[in-house]
Amino acid sequence: MLHIANPIPADSIRLIVFDLDGTLIDSRKDLAQSINAMLTQMQRQPLPEEIIATYIGDGAGMLVRRALGDPEEEHLVEEGLKRFLDYYREHKLDHTYVYAGVFSSLEALKTMPDGSARAMAVLTNKPIGPSLAICEALKLSPYFFQIYGGNSFGTKKPDPEGLNALIREAGVSPEETVMVGDSDVDVLTARRAGAWIIGCRFGLSSHTLESIPSDCLVDTAAEWATAFNSTSAHR
Asked: Considering its fold, how many domains does the chain have in total?
């Protein structure tokens, strides 16, 4: 069910920035299996996929740290991160897929109502290497003028550095920008940059969306385009 709190001025939105995991793709199983492979290698008990899913959203380092129980020994996190990434690089596409409705919405949103092109990009806290590889393999890359990962800048979301960079590169204003994501991290990023935010209740971290209001909430990726049409009608 589409829920609109603050109608987005769709006619003036010139940049849409998407989160990756839990927004464009369902990567839960591959991330969980990679975490459990790391835990097994470090002689630790595997965790249920449902638990690991709640750790996703703040980058690979935090995912590993949470899975290890937030150890005080930093070398354990470093070892775990290396083991996790080594495994994930080989298995990142075993089960990961693009959510239903994503491609149709991207097609609908890539053009402004006046027929001009609308810029679209990806800003994720996932490391840039696997992010680029996944977008390329799943045929998402052609839709985006830029893809930035969690190690593309000195900071990660919810710091707005990455979103601010995309806004500058696209030559638009924050008011002409929408962030689309499945977590409170994405909401905070948009708010701190002065952009609009669409929250995805179907994603991996959607339980966190309850803590900070979004301008619009959707239950499927197919509703992204509907949200824009609806918000135009609400103006």
From this structure: 2
Per the model's pLDDT, the better-predicted residue between 57 and 83 turns out to be: 83
- Angle at which helices 184-193 and 161-170 cross, to 10°: 50
**3-class state of residue 18 by DSSP:** strand
* Amino acid, res. 101: G
Q: Which two tokens stand for residue 61?
A: 């380092």
Of the candidates 64, 62, 55, 69, the residue with the CA atom closest to the CA atom of residue 82: 64
Instruction: Number of helices (H) and strands (E) in the chain: give both, helices first.
Output: 9, 9
Show the tokens assigned to 142: 């052609």
> Which residues are the active-site residues?
19
Per-residue pLDDT tens for 15-25? 999 999 999 99
To 5 degrees, how large is the angle CA 90–CA 94–CA 95? 145
Rounded to 5 degrees, what are φ and ψ at 16? -120, 125
Residue 190 backbone dihedrals phi, psi, to 5 degrees = -65, -45
Length of the chain, please? 235
118, 35: one domain: no
Q: In the structure encoding, which two tokens stand for residue 82, read together? A: 């290396």
Residue type, 15: L
Spatial contact of 5 and 215, defined as CB atoms under 8 Å apart: yes
Question: Residue 176 is part of which domain span?
Answer: 3-26+97-234
Pairing of strands 177-181, 146-148: unpaired
**Full-model pTM:** 0.94
